[in-house]
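Milestone M4 deliverable, item 7.
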Amino acid sequence: MYDLPPDLDRLRTLRTWYAMWLGRIDQAIQAAEQEQRERARLEQQRAEATPDWIVELGIGQGAPPVDIHIGGCHMAGKRRRTITRDEAVQLISQGVNACTHCRPDTDLGLLE
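Output delivered:
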């Protein structure tokens, strides 16, 4: 038939050995699936994370900053990038507009 031993003792030994390996393979599959779920969850969190400050960029050469927004402001346009608090303070101090809807200058403790 196949290349299996004919006696019952060796067949049971092979059965035990393969069952052991099948268990190890199942554990490895479960660990890999858990890792994949964790990576997907972290990726989703990263995608949903709202930055603290956003600079909206203009059109044209160099894309100059136009407005500063609080992260998640619905008025921020599509041309934007995340900035730090210090960058937001510096840009507003240099004359870049603070959004009139989310009022980042108030949250930053600046007065216009």
